[in-house]
Amino acid sequence: MSKRINAIDLNVYYGDFLAVEGVNIDIEPRSVTAFIGPSGCGKTTFLRTLNRMHEVLPGARVEGQLLLDDDNIYDTAVDPVTVRSMVGMVFQRPNPFPTMSIRDNVLAGYKLNGTRLSRSQSDQVVEEALKGANLWNEVKDRLDKPGSGLSGGQQQRLCIARTIAVKPDVILMDEPCSALDPISTLAIEDLINELKDTYTVVIVTHNMQQAARVSEKTAFFNIAGTGKPGKLIEYDETTKIFSNPSKKDTENYVSGRFG
Amino acid sequence: MAHANETTSPPSAGPAAPSGPVRKKTLRQSDRRGVFGDKLFSGLAMAAGIAILVLLAFVALFLSSSSGRALYSEDEGLIVGQFLQYAMPLVGGTIIASIIALGLAAPVAIGVALFISHFAPPRASRSIGYVIDLLAAIPSVVYGAWGMSFLAPAMVPVYRWLHENLGWFPLFAGNPSGTGRTILTAGIVLAVMILPIITSVSREIFIQTPKLHEEAALALGATRWEMIKMAVFPFARAGIISGIMLGLGRALGETMAVALVLSGGALTASLISTGNQTIPAEIALNFPEAGPGSERQAQLIAIGLVLFIITLVVNMIARWIVSRNKEFSGAN
Predict the structure, then answer these.
(1) Contact assessment for residue B226 and residue B213, using Cβ atoms and an 8 Å cutoff
(2) Quick check: A95 and B210 CB within 8 A?
(3) pLDDT digits over A100-157, tens only?
(4) How far is B205 from chain A (nearest CA, A)?
(5) Do A88 and B213 touch (CB under 8 A)?
(6) Which chain B residues are Cβ-neighbours of A91 within 8 angstroms?
(7) Which of A110, B31, B127, B171 has its CA 20 to 30 A from that of A175?
(8) A135 near A90, Cβ under 8 Å?
């Protein structure tokens, strides 16, 4: 189920532009890791290399290795489609499929990988995934209504349900709470705490309190200036990053004395 | 807050402070300029909207009033049956030609639009889009001339082959035309003519698919084609239907190309033999010889009214299809 992520000397390019340089990071299975850093520092770019989503942009490529347990996901024999079915992703803004019902949204991943589910099996998948996303009680009576009719926070939890329904090894979250109100944010954070028992969770966040609340380890990314590549500055236990970081840059950022 | 600022802050406080005499703003004083602009614009927009309705009403009124003599003659009374006998084969021919045109053009147009929006490299897609738009700029008489002098002779062996091998099928029964100027040839010419409009409408809507939904599908492990089925098509459904309807409108009303290509005749199910006629071509070919105010002229105007009604009904059906499942349209 849950897998270890290991990046070795990873460079990310968009065409000739080096966006992220020399990342070495080892992410434990069944843990929550937060990526923090200023805008444009490459944390989202790096997150998207973990499931090869950055390749959606033409010209994007990667140097170095990215191991999922022992397999390099950038091996030439690896299909990005397979990688993405094993490494799920939750986006900044909730994006349930607007033309599908809540139930069909949860089952979207199964529809893709061609698994034929009987009615009772799919009922079970839907219920488990929605319970896993703490959404079941709110939507169990309207599973056939469109997912876009839910509130923002509920939509985001629906997206999480859609992601965990296919039982991925890793869940990536790209600022999952930035479009949500504080109460919905709290609901998602509670959920992240439960998800780490089963999955490897990596979350990008601009909210340092959130990083401190949900993660066990934190990675701080920074950029030297416009046009320069983003770099991983420090990666350590979250408590250490926020109380006693070993790099000056990190201390400036987490204490708000940035720049 | 803003109000307090205006009255208390020194003139240097910001760009809002004018250099001339300071005009105090109060709640009851409105900015006349804005009100006038709003009124002018809403008036213009309303006038444009009303003009369309009035125009449509006049067209309907003209068609109905001038077609009276086709349905009623002083000697024989009501002659609706006689008129229908004349009109129905033409309705049939018009619909057959349009179905052929849509059946050929819609899949190709959607494919081309998808290629431009999601598969082709950016530079290639721009030039392909340009070429497709150029197709729309060719006058219909040129299409007609091409269809008559080039496509029709080229289709003759194809029709012969279809007749020999698939002759048992009603659509390919009957004697294959020696000139190739059949309803199928006309349908193919129409298909080429409506291709650009369906393509550009579909392309526009495909491009507007939210990145968010495309990425949602990709992140679940969708291939590009699966992503298109999951995110692009559902989003674009209404747009594709409008594009097809625009194309259908052109196919139903196209006159010149059909008049040149098709050597018309009685209604027949066979697509490869001479026969069939469409309403616009029938009107164009016969109108010059119909005396003003004669029964023949009334008859031709009456089939024009029939065409008008067909177009209206088709559009209403399209609206209904689009508005079905509104809840799931993604508009919210």
Answers:
(1) no
(2) yes
(3) 999 999 999 888 877 788 899 999 999 989 988 889 999 999 999 998 889 988 999 9
(4) 16
(5) no
(6) 212, 215-216, 219
(7) A110
(8) no
